[in-house]
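Case study B.
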Amino acid sequence: MEEATNVLKTILTKMGLEADVVSSENEERITLEVTGPETGLIIGKKGQTLDSLQYLVNKIVSKKVGEGEGKGVTVDAEGYRSRRAEALVELAHKLAEKAKRTGRPVSADPMSAADRRVIHVTLADMAGLTTRSEGEGIYRHLIVIPTGGGGATVASPSGGSPSGGGDGDGGASE
Amino acid sequence: MADHPQLQDLVKYLAVQLVDRPDEVIVEEMEEEGAAVFELTVAEDDLGKVIGKQGRTARALRTVLSAAASKVRARALLEILE
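Model:
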């Protein structure tokens, strides 16, 4: 945890930013919370800078302690991650509603693996639809696919099995 | 030319942390059309370490460099020399 804190503090100092880092830890992850007057710059557009800092801190720390060793590190500022998660849950429900209403697959904008995961998990137990990701790299995005069960008003003839229990291949022809 | 020694130091620090041969990391600053261009050279075997899968590490380096540059109202670019 000290290692991760020191790496992030060093990067922020070298970026010329005034910031403090408060660390906490649970069984799975280390969380580094950045505070100070310049968190807007540290978060960046759509959290891009925060994500980049998190990515680099994880790379650097895992190089120091050995690949696959040690815990993953989350870098946060002003509760951005939890606010983002709330917004993603809301987005997940909107996408689900639209997919069910239209009976057609609905694509979200490209987003990070962590962001996509929030949506996958949010909709995992919802009847009548399934989710999957498509595209590579920065273009990878999530698609919500109605499966015809669980209250869809329009049955898609090209869709998957009506019971929805299938292998997640439903709607592949869309 | 080195108008932004602090940004140069930032790029060098990050590169040194990521590679297996830190002593072979070179960062030089150039100026091109009003932007500070940082040319990063690493050992051949370390190129993948600073570029990353699908360029992810290079992208993260550029994002962090841009944020630091915007703080001093500069425009900074990172070029990784192969």
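Residues 80-102 of chain A form the longest helix (23 residues). The remaining cases will be described in the next quarterly update.
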